[in-house]
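Blackboard transcription, Thursday session:
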Amino acid sequence: MSVVETAGQVLRDGAFGHATALSCRECGHQVALGPFYACPECFGPLEISYDFPAVTREEIEAGPANIWRYKALLPVPSDIELSPNMEPGFTRLLKAHNLGRELGIDNLWVKDDSTNPTNSFKDRVVACALSAATELHAKVFACPSTGNLANAVAAAGARAGIKTMVFIPANLEKPKQVNSAIYTDSLVAVNGNYDDVNKLASEIAGEEEGWAFVNVNVRPYYAEGSKTLGYEIAEQLGWRLPDQVVIPVASGSQLTKVHKAFQELIKLGLVEDKKYKIYGAQATGCGPVATAFKAGVDAIRPVKPDTIAKSLAIGNPADGIYVLDICRETGGAVEEVTDDEIRDGIVLLARTEGIFTETAGGTTTAVLKKLVETGQLDTSLETVFINTGHGLKTLDAIADKVGAAATIDPSYDAFKASGLI
Amino acid sequence: MSVVETAGQVLRDGAFGHATALSCRECGHQVALGPFYACPECFGPLEISYDFPAVTREEIEAGPANIWRYKALLPVPSDIELSPNMEPGFTRLLKAHNLGRELGIDNLWVKDDSTNPTNSFKDRVVACALSAATELHAKVFACPSTGNLANAVAAAGARAGIKTMVFIPANLEKPKQVNSAIYTDSLVAVNGNYDDVNKLASEIAGEEEGWAFVNVNVRPYYAEGSKTLGYEIAEQLGWRLPDQVVIPVASGSQLTKVHKAFQELIKLGLVEDKKYKIYGAQATGCGPVATAFKAGVDAIRPVKPDTIAKSLAIGNPADGIYVLDICRETGGAVEEVTDDEIRDGIVLLARTEGIFTETAGGTTTAVLKKLVETGQLDTSLETVFINTGHGLKTLDAIADKVGAAATIDPSYDAFKASGLI
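(Written on the board underneath:)
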């Protein structure tokens, strides 16, 4: 590769690793790698294209215990480890013995991303966005968000030492503000809802030079970070693909990227080619993709979100149509569950596997249960579901559901009399 | 090894790995491995003795990305991975470029245990206690606690499918109760303070057969889990010891175990023998070890804790005298900081390295700063400090310290007028 110029900037050799271009997912038109996200021909979404070298399992296994072990498959430079970053990923893939028994699934695994640096999968995508921002010489690293993304961007920006601005709705609860404000003195509260904040972000991205909004103008790089969930699942299973995967759907990006990751691993010969089914999980209060799936239609009708699963509350999911395609093609499904089922899902996962998930993970757990109950999931097949975030961030959702079993006086006699044993 | 009988129970071959006995740290008297914690001769604390086999770096590196990669050096069976457990450890060792620059330390690292399964180092020790409880055929897995330990025990017990009872003070704040209650329906609220809860636990341990209280009667096994912090630091530095380590001191166990781990690695030839200094970090509101260190005395005078660093608030630390010995012998120190310094420490670590720590980590960060300012730490030497837990659990401590930089209307003009850029 040689030095290329994009958006008026000189990029260093290998700035984006083995990525070769941005390709439109709709019309296939290609543009040079740069801070672009929409096709200039048809306004379709741009996605990274690569020319991968031969990559071996051994090379990957010799890498660090974080997402950079897959750096050859990401749009990042080969010296990515040298740039201060959060070093996310390579989280636990746990055999879910108890939950499997409870649900009647023979062979169940949970991929637990709640132990990422800021306790959600967002650390993966933000790490890739940060690399793109750095390579594109961005002056400001920014995002609009109400939760996990804000935490991840604020933390990664602090560690990288890049100017960071995080835009949140002004009425966001104080604890959630603290989770981001702790990392940055540039948290900006905006009078309005998340849509207003998002619109402001796009406006700033259009007006200001050198701003990298992780989920706007460097979104193609950002989104690639979710592929690492797929790579890790395959590697941690011993370099093979599972039969079924259940993934929460907000924008839908994560689900499409796990599929992309599996396909890449097959093409690179790192896993055996096999059929697998992909399932999407949504909340009934924001289930536009599930609704379209069940209706058997291709068009997704936007909804106004009304669910406790705030991190899944995207009423008009950008990648919804791709989620539909993938779930239909692979023989999976998209299912939705009510807020009560989500709360039950949170408690179920904690009580069976010792994992405290946020509402998004409660949604995925509850959808897994519903897929079994409705006969949509084959309980004899190896199944993985993804927990994307931590329950400490959404304590309110279950604060009234759990508590002490008894209150006793501090004596052995009082304990014996309590009936607890 | 052959099958041994202890406390009336038949243990399976290799139940405790290469551990050979429980040895009194005071008089050296040895007893058979079992649910014992105090020397029958002198009431001194019992500690695990081993007969280690030859262990190579390669064997360890080929192990899983959790504490079981060091299973040959822990009192656990060789098939420990087969028992459902939290799979904690192998957390990030991050180069702290920004904080190092801020404090004037050339070569600074932070070992970040906030990304453990329940977000504190307690997952390490509880995993070892759980193994001991299982091998000893305990009926109930239990602890008295107000925080991190309760979370870790409740989660590990749920995943292991063992009956679990967690005792907390009844006046513990609701969010902290939820962090444990989410995992178990056997959370017991006790009318009284932590001392009362602790006393009740000892009473139950004495009265009931088959209860494993992690920090009481299986404490020797439990405490060994902290060695893995030392092993990981050495391995992640490339199989060498740092020059200086700063470690928070509650009971003092963690500090003594990191020292023990370093000594074991030297004896096993896994790292080069070298001098290193160990420093202890306490809060001024509960600094009995720091007080004794500064006074140059051997006896530790118990205090009544009064600090925001609740997880360090042990007024009569069991391992305090060993901490004094180690810090003096290695040329380190024990230092303390005020609650205001602790709060500043939390913000400093977040703003420089993107790590949101709890009050204990704020204490360690602030002590690190103070050690530099008072000339007690050599800023030219490679230094590691340990972050033991997550700030999401102690939000209240800094909720009034951080927040939005500005509140604006949702327009580009309003943003421009805000003076933020």
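Lecturer's comment: Chain B touches chain A through 84 residues (CB under 8 Å).
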